[in-house]
Amino acid sequence: MAIMCLQSDRALTYITTFTSKREQPIYNALIGLCWGTGCILGPVIGGGFAVSSATWRWAFYINLPLAGLISPVYLFLLPTHNPKPDIGTMQKLATIDWLGAFLFAGIFAILQVALTFSGSLWKWNNAGPISLWVVFAVFLLAFILQQDFSIATTPSHRLFLVHFLKSRTMVLLYTGTAASSTGLGLGVYYIPIFFQFTKGDSPIKAAVRLLPYICVFVTAVMLSGGLLPVLGRYQPFYIVSGVLLVFGGALMHTVHLDTSTTSIYGYEVLMALGAGTSMQVAYSVAVAIADKIDTLNAVGFINVAQIGSLSIGLSIAGCLYQNLGFDNIKSALSAYNFSDTEIRAALGGAHSAILASGDLALQRLVLEAIAATLRDIWILTIVAGAVALVSGLLMKREKLNLEMTAGG
Question: What residue ranges are annotated as transmembrane (predicted)?
Fold first, then answer.
């Protein structure tokens, strides 16, 4: 996750530096295209490794030779840009808000660990999760105070751009982007899980089922990237995005074991359109409205909204899946004598002892419980859509000038 965030931020920084404001929406959309291609190829390649003798670990190992293959492009072909050539490397390193970075990273890491293990590994009232939540609260409070009083840094070098919170547009761009990113992540992660459980799909086939979602998402990202410099208005993208996410999530909330695959494809297309319509828009808008000195900071601000919210959203969804899923399956199998460990294993995949028992009636009970759990997950998509819609309605009805030339 950290590497993905770093690479995404660098790519967006390059686009901001070397393209004009009119070109930026298109190039930002191309990042979405590359991301979508990865979402298509990743599960196929990973699924292939998972069912082969190489094992699933090679889905991660393969990144090393691929990075080595691409590294000459980074080293020799990408242009260089030094915005402060008169300042040495050590001086630049000294301006970094190291304490803020440590606290911010701790907030994300501890929150995700707490959400992942609370209820699934430890009971909520045990010392483990309580300790994690207390430490999370301490880190969060320490970060707020450190940023507010510029402890171990200066106001101009603080990690979090506090002055952006005074901008109505910046805050709404943040919430709108966070909402679309969360909606996207939930679909990418939980649509294949639904098909693997209810249709008995292999990892590769489940990835193929995701193709309509990803292809429509990429198309929506490219269209919004092309329309933004033409229209100059960004508010409609968030309103449309919110409406589509709400409708798509609401329809997915009705899905059960016997819902046709065609219907599910239609529902996921609505969600994909909703997420893609506003996913990359904020980058170009934030750069256009920010002061020149804050253009790169604006990119980082929106990047936190996009990737940070995606991470948090999936952690919350995972927590709900583990806790609600356990309760639903345990309730459905109350007449049986399965242990908590066996019930937890049923949430992990079709190869669990319960689902592999051969008892069709038993399998039906478990799958209905899992389908009910996934229906609850889609409530998060509805909430995300509502946040995007409200953000759009509160935005200014302004038209931006995206005719400016590149700055680098």
Answer: 26-46, 58-77, 98-118, 130-151, 171-191, 211-230, 237-257, 269-289, 301-324, 377-395
CA-CA-CA-CA torsion sign (359, 365, 371, 377): negative
112: closest CA among 220, 1, 4? 1
Mean pLDDT of 249-270: 95
Give the integer Cα–Cα distance in Å for 298 and 9. 11
**pLDDT given at position 94:** 84
Cβ neighbours around 359 below 10 Å, total: 13
Question: What 3-state DSSP class applies to 367?
Answer: helix
CA angle, residues 22, 391, 184, in degrees to nearest 5: 75
Distance, CA of 175 to CA of 386 (rounded, Å): 11
Alpha-carbon distance 295 to 172, whole Å? 17
Checking if the pLDDT of 93 tops 90, the result is no
Contacts by 300-303 with C-beta closer than 8 Å and gap 24+?
300/9, 300/161, 301/161, 301/164, 301/170, 301/174, 302/173, 302/174, 302/177, 303/5, 303/8, 303/9, 303/12
Weakest-pLDDT range from 73-77, 162-166, 260-264, 319-323: 73-77
Cα-only R_g, the chain: 23
Take residue 128 and report the two structure tokens written for it: 């483990």
CATH 1.20.1250 fits 1-76+161-397, yes or no: yes
Residues near 222 by Cβ (< 8 Å), separated by ≥ 6? 29, 30, 32, 33
Q: State phi, psi for 232 to the nearest 5 degrees.
A: 75, -10
pLDDT number for residue 7:
57
Secondary structure (3-state) at 361: helix
Query: With the C-alpha atoms ordered 293, 296, 298, 301, is the resulting torsion angle positive or negative?
Result: negative
Handedness of CA 5, 307, 213, 284 (dihedral sign): negative
Q: Where are the domains of the chain?
A: 1-76+161-397, 98-158
**pTM greater than 0.90:** no
Q: Residue 149 corresponds to which amino acid? A: F
